[in-house]
Amino acid sequence: MVKVYGISDAEREFLSSIEGRFREVVIQSFDDFQAFADNPYRFKRKMEDALNNQIMEASEKLASCQGNIADIKAEIDRLNYRMRKKINTKKKTYGQLRETIQEEIDDLIAKRDNLSKKKAEKEKAKRAMQQKIKSCRQRKEKVMNNIDSDIKLVRRLQKDYDTRNMMKGIWGEREVIKHLEKALRDLDNTHLINSFNFESIAEAININDRTITENRIDHVLVCPKGCFILETKAWSTVTERGIKKIQHQLKKTDIAFNKIFGKEIEENQIDIVLVCTKKPITLPDKSNYTSLKINELKEYVLHKNDVLGKDEITMILNTLLPHLDENHVSTPAKIYLKAKGLFVKSKRFLRRSDA
């Protein structure tokens, strides 16, 4: 079973690019974005239904308060009528009977006062419900306007060139994660770290008198077969300039891991691999790195001899995980799209491995 740590670099970049841009819908993952983008009007209807339910519940409580007030008022009127009759009767009596009637009048007054207090409480609750209904209606109008704005934004983002490129990167990196989860599910003590940032544990890296500023690695696969540093590319077009950029990136990764582990890991225990999810990319013959199509990755890993023991794997994880931005094991979780406290359950699920 593969334990997956963190989210992909492309997803992190994507979430950073849309942070704070949605007015009402809370996007916490790429799955949230896709769930909303797939059917935003369905989400809007569900949000509207949720708000209408709040208004309906408040209206029902208001009607109940109004009914209680009417009942109490009617009971007070009956008590007042009985009191008037008692007072008229008292005027025509004397002695002990007069005192008895006065006691009955006092009892009616106490009951009326008690009912008056209850009526005041119900009146207060009525005003509160009226205010709540007003607030809910204002909230509904604001939410609907904001969601309309969010729908326009998600449609623009789906057409935006840079956003679409980031989304391609997310799909490519997720394809690698999904492939490894399935391919290596029977391999014990297997860990996949996504979007690892080595800036805090590797010193400044210099290649050809140039300091490297990019400090993220797409995936680090750690298992008994070795420590595989995976750089994912979902390119449809490959140019000579692009290949040079890839070589530069792989060399940077190589230097970074040598700085991180030094002599703690042997040369045959680390393997730097370029994974192509679309068009294959051929590296120069003299390159020290391997380029594979995604469907070749399973065989490449499983046909390696075991070179890492349990203690070595633990040492690598203890070195890398404290510096992962999101140091956690991902587990299956249902998506909830949120609009400021109102949740709408989606049928889509986060596609992450079992921990």
Protein described:
This protein has 355 residues and is α/β, with parallel strands linked by helices. It folds into two domains: 38-159, Helix Hairpins, CATH 1.10.287; 162-344, Trna Endonuclease, Chain: A, domain 1. Helices cover 56% and strands 17% of the residues. The protein has a six-stranded mixed sheet with strand order 1-3-6-7-8-9, sandwiched between helices. Strands 2-10-11 form a three-stranded antiparallel sheet. A two-stranded antiparallel sheet has the order 4-5. A hairpin with a 2-residue loop joins strand 4 and strand 5 (210-211). Helix 1 (9-18) runs antiparallel to helix 5 (161-183) and helix 3 (40-91) runs antiparallel to helix 4. The longest helix has 65 residues, at 95-159. The radius of gyration is 35 Å and the shape is elongated. 27% of the residues are buried. Mean pLDDT is 85; it is low at 327-336 and 344-355.
